[in-house]
Specification:
Blueprint: H1 12-17, H2 22-39, E1 44-46, E2 50-59, E3 65-75, E4 80-84, H3 92-96, E5 102-103, E6 107-110, H4 118-135
Antiparallel strand pairs: 1-2, 2-3, 3-4, 4-6, 5-6
Helix pairs in contact: 2-4
Length: 136
Amino acid sequence: MTLKTQPGPEGANELVSAIEDPNRRQDCKTLLDFFKSITNQDPVVWGGAMIGYGRYAYKTQNGQEAEWFKVGFANRKTSLTIYVISGYKREPQLMKSLGKYKTGKSCLYIKQLNDIDLDVLKEVVENSYRWMSENY
């Protein structure tokens, strides 16, 4: 079984440039550079909407091998989604000082970058990327 969400031929810059809302487009342009500076990886569009950096292989619960990105982000209808695959719960002190956000299993949902402290987010993403690189 192959995962439905795969890296595609779309360009990350083109995807971000097509965002209609100018504020959201600028936030995503900032995130393109932000993640590249942390990971030293080129962005890859996954599933036509998620922008991922780095890759790792893992086994699913049924034993199938799959691949995913180590960290990334997506522009969603109501928020920016930041993918912290190692989990944000590993960083309770940092999360207290991040700012205004909501969470999912390995996602941070942010309305706009002005709502958070980018220096704190940088630490969270750096720590996650490092952990994923060391463990996968």
